[in-house]
Design a protein that fits this description.
316 residues, Rossmann fold, 2 domains, seven-stranded parallel β-sheet, two-stranded parallel ribbon, globular
């Protein structure tokens, strides 16, 4: 059986990829910095190794050991914020360090003889050189292409499905508030993909040999303000009033909301990424499941509670 390595198999996307690989009869190993969940979703089917990086340019020995014998690396490693969110405890990794670590992981994969890398980045990463979140992902893409490794680069912008965070938390807000502030000017778009569609496509490309870079999006694209109104009508029977605000006013408003909820709603890079239309795609869809169908199927439970990002849950 072919051995694959998934970074972060306990994470949202990583879990779906690992599940898909196991369902296809493969062996799966993970590199993770998280504690293993009390209820193992894989029933011992995933071999867990600690994610370790060296301070210098050479890969840490632990990385090389973990990658030994691996055919395909599915790399979901990244960090969301460039600076610690309010209340963060312990070590926090900024985007330049995340780039260095990602490149070290790719170098280790090449040294270990890994045949193929499936790398996850973001739509339109090359259009935001001044935003560290997006520019960092673009730098990792360049390093992978320059490495000579056989690769597929998949560029999603948002995911939906069981246990999703973004769509759920927008739904949570429209269930509770009649007004929904958004950074203006409006008109920017979002094109989410079902997490299991992305996992299946990634596994298909993992056994391929062609070098591929493509957006990883579903069949439906929405103007973000239209998505907010549609979710309101679908879940509550009323559309919230979308209030466009200057981005610099949205930032402290979202920060204050985050302090109350115990999480970061949107960072400055994420606000700017929205306004610059970086969550859109004009390519053919990679996934087949429509967000509208999924929301109708799950309308009773969607948005009933606010979901924290995993790094917050780790601190509790």
């Amino acid at each position: 059986m072919t051995l694959s390595l998934v970074t972060g198999a306990w994470s949202y996307l990583g879990r779906s990829i690992a599940s898909e690989l196991l369902a296809r009869g493969g062996r799966v190993r993970t590199l993770t910095s998280r504690r293993s969940p009390r209820l193992d979703p894989f029933n011992g089917g995933v071999d867990s190794w600690p994610l370790q990086f060296a301070a210098g340019s050479e890969p840490a020995p632990g990385l090389l050991d973990a990658l030994a014998g691996v055919d395909t690396l599915y790399n979901t490693y990244w960090v969301r914020h460039d600076r610690p969110p309010r209340g963060q405890r312990g070590t926090w990794i900024a985007h330049p360090e995340a780039v260095r670590r990602s490149c070290q992981l790719l170098d280790a994969a090449k040294m270990a003889g890994v045949r193929r890398v499936v790398q996850f980045t973001h739509t339109r990463t090359d259009l935001a050189p001044d935003l560290p979140y997006f520019a960092g992902k673009a730098a990792v893409e360049r390093h992978l292409r320059d490495s000579g490794l056989s690769h597929a680069i998949l560029r999603p912008n948002s995911l939906f499905g069981h246990r999703d965070i973004i769509i759920n938390n927008v739904a949570w807000a429209v269930r509770r508030f009649a007004v929904f502030p958004l950074p203006g000017p409006l008109g920017y778009r979002v094109r989410p993909i079902h997490v299991d569609d992305l996992a299946a496509a990634a596994c298909d490309l993992g056994v391929d040999n062609r070098n591929v870079t493509r957006d990883a999006c579903g069949p439906e694209q929405y103007a973000f303000d239209d998505l907010v109104r549609w979710l309101g009508r679908t879940l509550t029977g009323r559309a919230p009033i979308v209030l466009p605000l200057p981005p610099r006013l949205c930032q402290p408003l979202f920060q204050a909301t985050g302090w109350v909820l115990g999480d970061t709603i949107l960072s400055w890079s994420e606000i700017k990424g929205l306004v610059l239309d970086l969550l859109s795609s004009d390519e053919e869809p990679l996934g087949s499941r429509a967000l509208s169908d999924w929301v109708h199927e799950h309308r009773e439970e969607l948005g009933r509670e606010f979901r924290l990002y995993p790094y917050r849950l780790q601190q509790r």
